[in-house]
Automatic annotation (TrEMBL), chains A, B, C, D:
It catalyses: (6R)-10-formyltetrahydrofolate + H2O = (6S)-5,6,7,8-tetrahydrofolate + formate + H(+). NCBIfam families: PRK06027.1, PurU. The lineage of its organism: Bacteria, Bacillati, Actinomycetota, Actinomycetes, Micrococcales. It comes from the Bacteria. The keyword Hydrolase applies. GO terms for molecular function: formyltetrahydrofolate deformylase activity. This is Formyltetrahydrofolate deformylase. It is an enzyme of class 3 (hydrolase). InterPro entries: ACT-like_dom_sf, ACT_dom, Formyl-FH4-Hydrolase_C, Formyl_transf_N, Formyl_transf_N_sf, PurU, PurU_ACT.
Length: 306, 306, 306, 306
């Protein structure tokens, strides 16, 4: 949800004085930890009649970095708020993001043949329970095109293949993808079981802007057929991991992990089926948090203000 | 753990300038929501060279109440910090609590015959994973006295019974308990499966200072033999609820709930055994949060800043 | 999954001798507990060269009823197996069911306006991860018709309303439903958030053949707006319950229950959103078990051989 | 629990005819899968008036092995039952175990300095919720001796150290352990965070008779300081794995796994604390299942009939 909704509601209950009839915004920032940050930020917000409805902070002992996410309402314009924060941003050399809370994250979804996770994402974005808009879907296969049609979203087929000489068209395919990212003003790329490995170059270009669902419980069982590896190993829990894409395959910062119980009586195929379930909800959760600007990067780890 | 530990560590990593070698403190407050609270609080902390290491807020849409918990380090004394906060407390008419983070909550544990939850609590407090000290244990039975001895904690037997005329000594028993609360400067009373129902009067006197573990999943299956009720109903999950004690039996604000999976193949007795497990960890979790000043009251609900 | 798949596979690995190239079947039975049942059943199966691949039993201490589910492969026809079992069925006065494991349960889904759980069911039945076929969908509203079209399933609109005189057409609506149940040879009716209360008469007619998802954690928070009740109560876990429909509203035998963690920071609306998630997977799980003949009735409880 | 309890109860409810007033026994077996096994076993039990109260089977597709566990009551002696089963055992070349259900597994617990898991085990065995008796505790340190005294269990200190020349006394230490295993008729050795690595030779001698708790989520984060590895990796779930000891360190067959949620805000130390919790309940669960003869080996995997 957009957490500022209830806050607005609450303020309304407080005999809504004029200034509280503002619009909800989200601020997230990180900088080297030092004293006075909170005071400076809250002061800047106060200067634009900002009413803080939710705020979370974390001071990372490992990196000495300070993280903060603030939801607030203000009658002032986005520009005015930005201007008020600028001196603070400068003083503390902050990485700072500022968004209208109601604004949805423009998201490109990449998929292949398995529709389970795509289906979860599309249903939720249409139901309005996921703060994303999905202007375009990309796939290297055609199987899921009807689902895209059903949800009224353009589906672009970018096949990846090798020719007779064994030369892959991967480079062109990735170039096309980047064109789409630019053309559609994409802020987030979600790999909903897109089974191709992205080039290091593409991973770098999408750093912090692409989320992958790993169909197993990282850091174990990396690579191919993890459920079959897990089944062979006789694990009693299987899981899924949603993480940011990095050049280092399957080593990106983890956003969310979930597990499901399994038993000896279930086949590897059943592991896969149960795995799909948990993959879908794990990826949706991660996309939701990212789209609500709740995920910040702390070195190789994530700070999740859920 | 005491969450300010890592923060201190982190500060240490920040090339510890003199003022950061302070002592960790915890501040929690609630007041009617309005603008400028965060700025005022952070300003007061800044004035005592407070370095905020963790801070969480919540603005309750249902009650219009603002809640805040701050961990910070300061080189100043507790008194100095209190003085710096006083004008803020007054301006916003705050309920405000201020503690040394390292200070343990003085806790009196009441038990009866079943030692599982008592055992969990005593082990953890001795292991130092629970920020409580337990100066005295009270029971209406003698079964658990050896455990108290093992942990070197005074065990006081306050039997509750009816005499020949059917007059109960409950009133005197509760009076004795209150004497102990006063004598030992008790800040928290934990009912670790103390099977007696407290009088409304005692509940009121301990309001917000007594935690009970309900051996079932509130609000269902209240009252006697809940696991047997649950077994009869054929539930697939059983749970436990840790809540503050109120005059309204089993209706106190919920602090923590946990569940465990059960099947048709398990007897009511097995439900009880599995229930004990989840009771122990649920109560320990609730006591831990309370002792770290993470639990605030929002009407009939709790705000848990974990 | 159809648990006999791996078994067949395994048998294949055992240098498939002729008799093992049979077809997988499922047998489920219950009767008053007495000695010799297992021997009699296994003897009957042996007489049709049945190869038991999975078998589970339960002897209910509460009702004195014996329950058994057997998966086996046989080269003989369904009729031959039935004939072989007939004397056993008679001797022990068994309730007995016998199915081809590959046969899908003919299921009618009823829905209203919220598509989340319907979407889960339809996707899974098409993906083949749910052993049901859905020949028809019934709704008292039109919102979900496009989804039915997408999955290529007939959608029948049976509005339920009151006329000017306040007379409801509920009786006719339920009559129509029963006609459809007959017309389409329906074995299972799934109420995927169909928000109408069925008449006692209909409930009785569908006894053991209709599954409902209760959008909360039975037995607590029955009736209307349970998530809002839960939110008001400040619970830390919300859940969903899939149960058989009985005349006694929300009191039917429980098949499956699942929970999700919530916090003070989430609004009642967010409770609903998270609730939908858990409802979908809880209902799918219950339908899957029922369709695989894993659920037997033990008085007001269920025996689930998962 | 001892699953035969409810069964007996149930039989009692069945107007206990003479033959049912027997004693509960547990039979577990495995053999190459073929037809007629169930019929043969049930026939043998019938011949000793065995009343089957619970029975579970599994036919492993991966190894072609058939597994079965039966709980039954019989008026006949253990010897009589064994004799009745002998021909069946021979015919199918079965690995077969037969126990009085009420008989507790003689267990030796090894520990080091951390008492959390030991405390769980000792409390539960005394509470009677774990079907084990613990005649002796072994440790390479003295820290936990008081706990052993409290529970009235002999505590034997077998230090493991290197002398001035760097020669370890490990060989003698392990020899002493094996002497104790023989002296006390030990059937199960539980490594309750015994931090020494056992020699391959000892592992082989204890194969299938020793359970270890791995303080992390296998197969990831093997070896030293797994929680710190996990913290560094930024995982969102930590877990514990209880497995049989094999020469291949941390690669033994997995019996049980459990997880706990963690966040960025928790330090590695807090990971350890939460980890201890889940370790304790994971190990107890595994020991409980083993002691109730619910765990069978299927190659490198376990079949758990819980």
């Amino acid at each position: 949800m957009n957490a500022s909704t209830p806050a607005t509601a609450s303020n309304a209950t407080l005999a809504g004085s004029a200034e509280i009839t503002g619009h909800p915004m989200v601020l997230s920032l990180s900088c080297k930890n030092s004293r006075g940050i909170v005071h400076a930020v809250s002061g800047a917000l106060l200067s634009v009649q900002g009413d803080i409805t939710d705020s979370k902070q974390f001071d990372s002992p490992d990196t000495g970095t300070f993280f903060m996410r603030v939801e607030f309402t203000t009658p002032e314009s986005r520009e005015a708020v930005e201007a008020a924060l600028e001196p603070v941003r400068e003083e503390f050399a902050m990485d700072l993001g500022l968004w209208e809370a109601s604004r949805k994250t423009r998201t490109l979804v990449m998929c292949s043949k398995d529709g389970r996770t795509l289906n979860d994402l599309l249903f939720q974005q249409r139901a309005g329970t996921l703060s994303v808009e999905i202007p375009v879907i990309v796939s290297n296969h055609l199987e899921l095109q009807p689902m895209a049609f059903f949800y009224g979203i353009p589906f672009i087929h970018i096949p990846v293949a090798k020719d007779a000489e064994g030369n892959s068209n991967k480079a062109e395919a990735e170039a096309k993808l980047l064109d789409l990212v630019a053309e559609y003003d994409i802020e987030l790329v979600v790999l909903a079981r897109y089974m191709q490995i992205l080039s290091d170059d593409l991973c770098r270009k999408l750093e912090g802007k692409a989320i992958n669902i790993h169909h197993s419980f990282l850091p174990s069982f990396k690579g191919a057929r993890p459920y079959h590896q897990a089944h062979e190993r006789g694990v009693k829990l299987i899981g899924a991991t949603a993480h940011y894409v990095t050049a280092d395959l399957d080593e990106g910062p983890i956003i969310e992990q979930q597990v499901q119980r399994v038993t000896h009586a279930q086949s590897a195929r059943e592991f896969v089926i149960r795995g799909r379930e948990v993959e879908g909800s794990t990826l949706s959760r991660a996309v939701k948090w990212h789209a609500e600007h709740r995920v910040l990067l702390d070195g190789k780890r994530t700070v999740v203000f859920d």
